[in-house]
Q: What sequence folds into this?
């Protein structure tokens, strides 16, 4: 079962954002957009439920064509579905089974129910802004997971970072985080507290490395959701494991609802992942 995406051909975006008296200009080059792309960019587009439901073991992409799968309310997708290179899967409703992978491609989840078992590998990217994802996720080196909304995981589950990147700015993450050497965990929010001490010296929109371990880091994510992680250097399965070999950063953003927050949110919508 072969399909393909045009997850955004290489593009350059110049974005200028004014935050208080600070002007930040970024030149961003990308292969994939973060978020659903214009269907007109793709060679093959499948829309479920308008088109037939997707069975188990369906792979999209992997060839020379660019392929997009869009799943809306009433649509059904089976288990073991993958977005290969040149593929984009957008889930805005409906029901998707377990074992869904971004294997060099891109998956965007904004609503609906996904059984779980998300995997990003071989440069794949997964972004969740809404919806419910049942079980744990795994992100391998060179791949990226963006979580800004929705519900991910269940108590007792584990979000595995095997050298990959997790950008956390909102939503509910029920899983513990287990990260190996070289992984990146970037948290965007406010009211950060490390080992009971508020981090009052943070600068807006500037990533600050957190090197202290075996303490608790908590605060409020950019969307207003609370979070708390134990920065354990050793832990049994089902508890946070974030050793010093993991690149952990926090970035202070304006409070939700403020004008500056709206401006920054608009800029982040256009943010692109790194291309290795």
A:
């Amino acid at each position: 079962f072969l399909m393909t995406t045009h997850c955004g051909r290489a593009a350059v975006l110049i974005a200028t954002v004014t935050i208080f008296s600070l002007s930040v200009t970024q030149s961003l080059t990308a292969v994939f957009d973060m978020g659903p792309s214009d269907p007109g960019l793709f060679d093959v587009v499948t829309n479920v439920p308008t088109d037939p439901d997707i069975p188990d073991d369906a792979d999209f992409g992997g060839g020379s064509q660019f392929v997009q799968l869009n799943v809306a309310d009433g649509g059904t997708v089976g288990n073991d579905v993958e977005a290969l290179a040149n593929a984009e899967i957008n889930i805005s409703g409906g029901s998707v089974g377990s074992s869904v992978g971004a294997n060099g491609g891109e998956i965007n989840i904004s609503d609906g129910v996904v059984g779980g078992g998300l995997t990003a590998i071989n440069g794949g990217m997964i972004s969740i802004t809404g919806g419910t994802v049942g079980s744990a996720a795994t992100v391998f080196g060179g791949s990226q997971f963006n979580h800004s909304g929705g519900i991910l995981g269940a108590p007792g589950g584990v979000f595995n970072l095997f050298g990959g990147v997790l950008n956390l700015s909102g939503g509910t993450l029920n899983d513990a985080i287990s990260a190996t050497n070289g992984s990146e965990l970037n948290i965007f929010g406010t009211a950060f507290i490390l080992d009971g001490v508020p981090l009052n010296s943070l600068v807006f929109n500037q990533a600050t490395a957190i090197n202290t371990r075996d303490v608790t880091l908590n605060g409020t994510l950019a969307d207003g959701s609370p979070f708390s992680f134990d920065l354990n250097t050793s832990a049994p399965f089902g508890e946070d494991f974030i050793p010093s070999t993991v690149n952990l950063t926090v970035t202070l953003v304006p409070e939700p609802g403020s004008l500056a927050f709206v401006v920054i949110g608009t800029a982040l919508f256009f943010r692109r992942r790194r291309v290795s």
